[in-house]
Amino acid sequence: MARALLSTLVILVAPLAATEPTPPPTTYRPPVDAPVSDPFRPPPTRYGRGNRGLEYDTDAGVVVVAAAGGSVTFAGQVGGRLHVTVAHADGIRTTYGPLGRIAPGVVRGAVLDAGDAVGTA
Protein backbone atom coordinates (compact mmCIF):
# COMPACT_ATOMS: atom_id res chain seq x y z
CA MET A 1 0.00 0.00 0.00
CA ALA A 2 2.78 2.44 0.88
CA ARG A 3 4.54 1.70 -2.38
CA ALA A 4 1.48 2.60 -4.46
CA LEU A 5 1.03 5.86 -2.56
CA LEU A 6 4.65 6.89 -3.18
CA SER A 7 4.32 6.22 -6.90
CA THR A 8 1.18 8.33 -7.05
CA LEU A 9 2.92 11.22 -5.32
CA VAL A 10 5.82 11.13 -7.75
CA ILE A 11 3.47 11.14 -10.71
CA LEU A 12 1.57 14.13 -9.32
CA VAL A 13 4.68 16.14 -8.44
CA ALA A 14 6.67 15.56 -11.61
CA PRO A 15 4.24 17.33 -13.98
CA LEU A 16 4.09 20.37 -11.69
CA ALA A 17 7.86 20.83 -11.81
CA ALA A 18 7.97 20.38 -15.59
CA THR A 19 5.32 23.04 -16.26
CA GLU A 20 7.21 25.96 -14.70
CA PRO A 21 8.23 28.21 -17.59
CA THR A 22 11.86 29.21 -17.93
CA PRO A 23 12.08 32.97 -18.42
CA PRO A 24 13.84 34.01 -21.61
CA PRO A 25 17.24 35.65 -21.17
CA THR A 26 17.18 39.44 -20.97
CA THR A 27 18.97 41.19 -23.82
CA TYR A 28 20.05 44.80 -23.60
CA ARG A 29 20.46 47.47 -26.23
CA PRO A 30 22.09 50.90 -25.93
CA PRO A 31 19.61 53.52 -24.67
CA VAL A 32 20.83 56.07 -27.26
CA ASP A 33 22.62 56.01 -30.60
CA ALA A 34 25.79 57.74 -29.42
CA PRO A 35 29.36 56.83 -28.51
CA VAL A 36 30.26 55.94 -24.94
CA SER A 37 32.10 58.93 -23.46
CA ASP A 38 32.94 57.37 -20.07
CA PRO A 39 33.02 53.56 -19.76
CA PHE A 40 32.41 51.42 -16.70
CA ARG A 41 35.25 51.79 -14.19
CA PRO A 42 34.87 49.67 -11.05
CA PRO A 43 35.73 51.50 -7.83
CA PRO A 44 38.78 50.25 -5.90
CA THR A 45 36.65 50.01 -2.73
CA ARG A 46 32.92 49.76 -2.02
CA TYR A 47 32.49 53.54 -1.69
CA GLY A 48 35.47 54.59 -3.79
CA ARG A 49 35.52 56.67 -6.94
CA GLY A 50 34.70 55.06 -10.25
CA ASN A 51 31.94 54.94 -12.83
CA ARG A 52 29.37 52.26 -12.11
CA GLY A 53 27.65 52.68 -15.48
CA LEU A 54 28.15 53.98 -18.98
CA GLU A 55 27.95 57.61 -20.02
CA TYR A 56 27.02 58.49 -23.59
CA ASP A 57 27.99 61.57 -25.59
CA THR A 58 24.51 62.80 -26.53
CA ASP A 59 22.99 66.09 -27.57
CA ALA A 60 20.20 67.77 -25.60
CA GLY A 61 16.77 66.55 -26.62
CA VAL A 62 17.89 63.11 -27.85
CA VAL A 63 15.29 60.46 -26.95
CA VAL A 64 16.55 57.96 -24.35
CA VAL A 65 14.95 54.49 -24.53
CA ALA A 66 14.69 51.51 -22.18
CA ALA A 67 17.64 49.18 -22.74
CA ALA A 68 15.36 46.19 -22.05
CA GLY A 69 11.79 45.59 -20.98
CA GLY A 70 10.89 45.96 -17.33
CA SER A 71 9.00 47.81 -14.65
CA VAL A 72 9.70 51.41 -13.63
CA THR A 73 10.74 51.46 -9.97
CA PHE A 74 11.60 55.17 -9.81
CA ALA A 75 10.89 58.24 -11.94
CA GLY A 76 11.68 61.62 -10.49
CA GLN A 77 14.29 63.99 -9.11
CA VAL A 78 17.52 63.08 -7.38
CA GLY A 79 19.57 66.10 -6.33
CA GLY A 80 17.52 68.34 -8.62
CA ARG A 81 18.07 66.15 -11.70
CA LEU A 82 15.59 63.78 -13.36
CA HIS A 83 16.24 60.03 -13.35
CA VAL A 84 14.32 56.86 -14.26
CA THR A 85 15.13 53.38 -12.94
CA VAL A 86 13.80 50.21 -14.58
CA ALA A 87 13.91 46.73 -12.99
CA HIS A 88 14.36 43.88 -15.48
CA ALA A 89 13.35 40.21 -15.27
CA ASP A 90 16.94 39.07 -14.70
CA GLY A 91 17.28 41.19 -11.53
CA ILE A 92 19.34 43.95 -13.16
CA ARG A 93 18.24 47.57 -12.76
CA THR A 94 19.10 50.26 -15.29
CA THR A 95 19.02 53.94 -14.40
CA TYR A 96 18.81 56.72 -16.96
CA GLY A 97 19.85 60.23 -16.08
CA PRO A 98 20.26 63.01 -15.77
CA LEU A 99 17.36 63.52 -18.16
CA GLY A 100 16.04 66.77 -19.59
CA ARG A 101 12.51 65.44 -19.19
CA ILE A 102 10.77 62.17 -18.32
CA ALA A 103 8.49 60.75 -21.03
CA PRO A 104 4.73 60.91 -20.41
CA GLY A 105 3.42 57.78 -18.69
CA VAL A 106 6.82 56.83 -17.27
CA VAL A 107 5.86 56.59 -13.62
CA ARG A 108 6.54 54.11 -10.83
CA GLY A 109 4.86 50.82 -11.73
CA ALA A 110 4.70 51.46 -15.48
CA VAL A 111 5.78 48.51 -17.62
CA LEU A 112 8.10 49.34 -20.50
CA ASP A 113 9.20 47.30 -23.49
CA ALA A 114 12.75 47.49 -24.82
CA GLY A 115 13.02 50.63 -26.92
CA ASP A 116 10.19 52.52 -25.21
CA ALA A 117 11.05 56.17 -24.51
CA VAL A 118 12.00 56.93 -20.88
CA GLY A 119 12.77 60.60 -21.55
CA THR A 120 15.15 62.93 -23.31
CA ALA A 121 18.80 63.76 -22.73
Description:
The chain has a single domain (26-120), classed as Glucose Permease (Domain IIA) (Distorted Sandwich), CATH 2.70.70. With 121 residues, the protein is of the alpha+beta class. A hairpin with a 5-residue loop joins strand 5 (81-87) and strand 6 (93-99). It starts with a helix and ends with a strand. 14% of the residues lie in helices and 32% in strands.
Keywords, separated by commas or semicolons:
alpha+beta, single chain, 3-stranded antiparallel beta sheet, 1 helix, 4-stranded antiparallel beta sheet, Glucose Permease (Domain IIA), globular, 121 residues, 9 strands
Helix content: 10-25%
What class do helices, strands and sheet pairing give?
Answer: alpha+beta
Question: What is the radius of gyration?
Answer: 21 Å
Q: How do the SSEs run, as a string of H and E?
A: HEEEEEEEEE
Low-confidence stretches: 1-15
Shape label: globular
Largest sheet, strands/sense/barrel: 4 strands, antiparallel
Question: Which CATH top level class fits?
Answer: Mainly Beta
Placed side by side, the strands forming the largest sheet appear as 6-5-4-8
List the helices and strands and how they pair.
Blueprint: H1 2-18, E1 36-38, E2 55-56, E3 63-65, E4 70-78, E5 81-87, E6 93-99, E7 101-102, E8 111-112, E9 117-120
Antiparallel strand pairs: 1-2, 3-9, 4-5, 4-8, 5-6, 7-9
